[in-house]
Amino acid sequence: MNRVVALALRPPGSNAPAPQDSVQALAGQGLAGDRHLDAHSPRQILIAGAAAYEDLALPPLALRENLLLDLDTRALASGTLLRVGEQAVLRLCFQCEACGSLDRERPGLARAIDGRRGMLARVVAGGEIRAGDRVEVLDARMPALAEDWRERVVQVLDALPAGMVVEYAALARFAGVQSVYCRAFPRLLASRGVSDKAVTARSGSTAPRWDGSGLYD
Protein backbone atom coordinates (compact mmCIF):
# COMPACT_ATOMS: atom_id res chain seq x y z
CA MET A 1 0.00 0.00 0.00
CA ASN A 2 1.57 3.28 -1.12
CA ARG A 3 1.43 6.21 1.31
CA VAL A 4 2.25 9.89 1.63
CA VAL A 5 5.53 10.08 3.56
CA ALA A 6 5.78 13.87 3.95
CA LEU A 7 4.31 17.16 2.71
CA ALA A 8 5.65 20.64 2.08
CA LEU A 9 4.63 24.00 0.63
CA ARG A 10 6.72 26.72 -0.95
CA PRO A 11 5.00 29.98 0.03
CA PRO A 12 4.83 32.86 -2.49
CA GLY A 13 8.03 34.88 -2.38
CA SER A 14 10.05 32.02 -0.91
CA ASN A 15 11.94 29.20 -2.58
CA ALA A 16 12.42 27.25 0.64
CA PRO A 17 9.89 24.43 1.16
CA ALA A 18 8.22 24.37 4.57
CA PRO A 19 7.09 21.01 6.06
CA GLN A 20 3.34 20.57 6.58
CA ASP A 21 1.17 18.08 8.42
CA SER A 22 -1.52 18.51 5.76
CA VAL A 23 -2.16 20.50 2.58
CA GLN A 24 -5.32 21.49 0.73
CA ALA A 25 -5.43 20.55 -2.95
CA LEU A 26 -7.62 22.90 -4.99
CA ALA A 27 -9.16 21.48 -8.17
CA GLY A 28 -7.56 22.94 -11.29
CA GLN A 29 -5.29 25.25 -9.31
CA GLY A 30 -2.71 23.47 -7.15
CA LEU A 31 -2.00 23.54 -3.43
CA ALA A 32 -3.42 26.35 -1.30
CA GLY A 33 -0.64 28.62 -0.09
CA ASP A 34 1.97 27.34 -2.55
CA ARG A 35 3.88 29.57 -4.95
CA HIS A 36 3.03 27.31 -7.90
CA LEU A 37 -0.74 27.74 -7.56
CA ASP A 38 -1.66 28.38 -11.21
CA ALA A 39 -4.75 27.24 -13.08
CA HIS A 40 -2.94 27.13 -16.44
CA SER A 41 0.32 25.43 -15.45
CA PRO A 42 1.27 21.73 -15.60
CA ARG A 43 3.73 22.36 -12.74
CA GLN A 44 1.30 22.78 -9.83
CA ILE A 45 2.76 20.02 -7.64
CA LEU A 46 6.12 18.25 -7.48
CA ILE A 47 5.91 14.61 -6.38
CA ALA A 48 9.13 12.84 -5.35
CA GLY A 49 9.82 9.24 -4.39
CA ALA A 50 11.27 8.31 -1.01
CA ALA A 51 13.69 5.85 -2.62
CA ALA A 52 15.72 8.70 -4.12
CA TYR A 53 16.32 10.09 -0.62
CA GLU A 54 17.35 6.70 0.70
CA ASP A 55 19.63 5.81 -2.21
CA LEU A 56 21.44 9.16 -2.22
CA ALA A 57 21.30 9.85 1.55
CA LEU A 58 19.70 13.25 0.94
CA PRO A 59 18.63 15.64 3.69
CA PRO A 60 14.87 16.32 4.00
CA LEU A 61 13.35 18.42 1.19
CA ALA A 62 16.56 18.44 -0.86
CA LEU A 63 14.45 17.85 -3.98
CA ARG A 64 12.03 20.66 -3.02
CA GLU A 65 9.01 18.43 -3.50
CA ASN A 66 5.47 19.07 -2.28
CA LEU A 67 4.56 15.41 -1.82
CA LEU A 68 7.00 12.67 -0.86
CA LEU A 69 5.56 9.24 -1.64
CA ASP A 70 6.84 5.72 -0.94
CA LEU A 71 6.89 4.78 -4.63
CA ASP A 72 9.29 5.14 -7.54
CA THR A 73 8.17 8.10 -9.64
CA ARG A 74 10.20 6.83 -12.61
CA ALA A 75 7.69 4.00 -13.01
CA LEU A 76 4.76 6.40 -13.45
CA ALA A 77 3.64 7.57 -16.87
CA SER A 78 2.28 10.93 -17.95
CA GLY A 79 -1.51 10.94 -17.85
CA THR A 80 -1.65 8.60 -14.85
CA LEU A 81 -4.17 9.60 -12.18
CA LEU A 82 -3.38 9.21 -8.50
CA ARG A 83 -5.99 9.35 -5.75
CA VAL A 84 -4.29 10.74 -2.65
CA GLY A 85 -6.26 10.54 0.56
CA GLU A 86 -10.04 10.38 0.43
CA GLN A 87 -10.78 12.94 -2.28
CA ALA A 88 -7.77 14.50 -4.02
CA VAL A 89 -6.94 13.25 -7.53
CA LEU A 90 -3.70 14.29 -9.24
CA ARG A 91 -2.85 14.10 -12.93
CA LEU A 92 0.80 13.27 -13.57
CA CYS A 93 2.24 15.53 -16.27
CA PHE A 94 5.96 14.90 -16.88
CA GLN A 95 9.24 14.25 -15.13
CA CYS A 96 10.81 17.24 -13.39
CA GLU A 97 14.15 18.23 -14.86
CA ALA A 98 17.24 18.01 -12.66
CA CYS A 99 18.19 21.71 -12.67
CA GLY A 100 21.39 23.27 -11.36
CA SER A 101 19.66 24.40 -8.16
CA LEU A 102 20.10 20.85 -6.85
CA ASP A 103 23.84 21.37 -6.83
CA ARG A 104 23.39 23.99 -4.13
CA GLU A 105 22.14 21.19 -1.89
CA ARG A 106 25.08 18.98 -2.81
CA PRO A 107 27.67 19.45 -5.58
CA GLY A 108 26.99 16.98 -8.37
CA LEU A 109 23.46 16.14 -7.21
CA ALA A 110 21.82 17.24 -10.47
CA ARG A 111 23.80 14.57 -12.32
CA ALA A 112 23.54 11.92 -9.60
CA ILE A 113 19.76 12.19 -9.34
CA ASP A 114 19.50 10.49 -12.78
CA GLY A 115 15.80 10.98 -13.53
CA ARG A 116 14.62 10.72 -9.92
CA ARG A 117 13.83 14.38 -9.24
CA GLY A 118 10.15 13.49 -9.33
CA MET A 119 7.05 14.13 -11.42
CA LEU A 120 5.07 17.32 -11.88
CA ALA A 121 1.32 17.12 -11.52
CA ARG A 122 -1.97 19.01 -11.67
CA VAL A 123 -4.92 18.79 -9.31
CA VAL A 124 -7.96 17.20 -10.97
CA ALA A 125 -10.10 16.84 -7.84
CA GLY A 126 -9.49 18.78 -4.65
CA GLY A 127 -9.34 17.65 -1.06
CA GLU A 128 -7.19 17.57 2.03
CA ILE A 129 -3.97 15.54 1.89
CA ARG A 130 -2.32 14.39 5.11
CA ALA A 131 0.93 12.63 5.89
CA GLY A 132 0.21 8.90 5.98
CA ASP A 133 -2.65 9.10 3.47
CA ARG A 134 -3.14 6.22 1.07
CA VAL A 135 -2.02 6.70 -2.57
CA GLU A 136 -3.89 4.75 -5.26
CA VAL A 137 -3.06 4.52 -8.96
CA LEU A 138 -6.42 4.76 -10.76
CA ASP A 139 -7.38 2.77 -13.84
CA ALA A 140 -8.60 5.90 -15.66
CA ARG A 141 -6.05 7.99 -17.54
CA MET A 142 -5.81 11.43 -19.09
CA PRO A 143 -3.90 12.46 -22.24
CA ALA A 144 -0.14 12.26 -21.84
CA LEU A 145 2.11 15.31 -22.06
CA ALA A 146 5.43 15.01 -23.87
CA GLU A 147 8.60 14.73 -21.81
CA ASP A 148 10.51 16.77 -24.40
CA TRP A 149 9.76 20.47 -23.81
CA ARG A 150 9.73 21.16 -27.56
CA GLU A 151 6.98 18.64 -28.12
CA ARG A 152 4.98 20.06 -25.20
CA VAL A 153 5.14 23.52 -26.75
CA VAL A 154 3.72 22.07 -29.97
CA GLN A 155 1.02 20.23 -27.99
CA VAL A 156 -0.06 23.53 -26.46
CA LEU A 157 -0.18 25.20 -29.87
CA ASP A 158 -2.26 22.32 -31.22
CA ALA A 159 -4.89 23.26 -28.62
CA LEU A 160 -4.91 26.95 -29.60
CA PRO A 161 -8.43 28.08 -30.57
CA ALA A 162 -8.84 29.10 -34.20
CA GLY A 163 -8.27 32.79 -34.90
CA MET A 164 -6.26 33.38 -31.72
CA VAL A 165 -2.56 33.70 -30.92
CA VAL A 166 -0.62 33.11 -27.72
CA GLU A 167 2.18 35.31 -26.42
CA TYR A 168 5.56 33.71 -25.86
CA ALA A 169 5.54 34.16 -22.07
CA ALA A 170 2.12 32.55 -21.81
CA LEU A 171 3.17 29.71 -24.12
CA ALA A 172 6.12 28.95 -21.85
CA ARG A 173 3.85 28.98 -18.80
CA PHE A 174 1.25 26.70 -20.39
CA ALA A 175 3.91 24.23 -21.55
CA GLY A 176 5.66 24.23 -18.18
CA VAL A 177 9.03 25.57 -19.34
CA GLN A 178 11.15 28.39 -17.97
CA SER A 179 10.74 31.81 -19.57
CA VAL A 180 14.34 31.72 -20.79
CA TYR A 181 13.19 29.10 -23.32
CA CYS A 182 11.26 31.85 -25.13
CA ARG A 183 14.53 32.71 -26.88
CA ALA A 184 14.34 29.37 -28.68
CA PHE A 185 10.72 29.74 -29.74
CA PRO A 186 11.23 31.55 -33.08
CA ARG A 187 13.47 28.82 -34.51
CA LEU A 188 11.39 25.99 -33.01
CA LEU A 189 8.08 27.35 -34.27
CA ALA A 190 9.50 28.08 -37.69
CA SER A 191 10.79 24.51 -37.97
CA ARG A 192 7.30 23.19 -37.18
CA GLY A 193 5.50 25.63 -39.48
CA VAL A 194 3.52 27.26 -36.66
CA SER A 195 5.20 30.66 -36.36
CA ASP A 196 1.87 32.39 -36.93
CA LYS A 197 0.40 30.93 -33.73
CA ALA A 198 2.66 32.64 -31.18
CA VAL A 199 3.79 36.25 -30.86
CA THR A 200 5.97 38.41 -28.66
CA ALA A 201 4.41 40.79 -26.15
CA ARG A 202 5.33 43.69 -28.43
CA SER A 203 3.82 42.16 -31.55
CA GLY A 204 1.55 44.36 -33.62
CA SER A 205 -0.79 41.45 -34.28
CA THR A 206 -4.42 42.36 -33.69
CA ALA A 207 -5.50 38.72 -33.21
CA PRO A 208 -7.02 38.01 -29.78
CA ARG A 209 -4.60 36.58 -27.20
CA TRP A 210 -5.35 33.16 -25.76
CA ASP A 211 -5.37 32.93 -21.96
CA GLY A 212 -5.11 29.14 -21.86
CA SER A 213 -8.80 28.57 -21.19
CA GLY A 214 -9.75 24.93 -21.75
CA LEU A 215 -6.19 23.69 -22.15
CA TYR A 216 -6.22 21.37 -19.14
CA ASP A 217 -9.95 20.79 -18.79
Explain the overall architecture.
The protein is an alpha+beta fold. The protein folds into two domains: 2-141, M1 Pyruvate Kinase, Domain 3; 149-199, no CATH class. The chain has six helices and 13 strands. The protein has helices at residues 50-56, 102-105, 109-112, 149-158, 168-175, 185-191; strands spanning 2-9, 18-20, 22-26, 30-31, 45-49, 67-69, 80-84, 88-95, 119-125, 127-130, 134-141, 166-167, 198-199. The strands form three sheets. The chain has a seven-stranded mixed barrel. A hairpin with a 3-residue loop joins strand 3 (22-26) and strand 4 (30-31). It is globular and about 50 Å long. 33% of the residues are buried.
Quick description:
By secondary structure, the chain is α+β, with helices and mostly antiparallel strands. The chain has helices at 50-56, 102-105, 109-112, 149-158, 168-175, 185-191, and strands at 2-9, 18-20, 22-26, 30-31, 45-49, 67-69, 80-84, 88-95, 119-125, 127-130, 134-141, 166-167, 198-199. Helix 1 (50-56) links the parallel strand 5 and strand 6 (67-69).
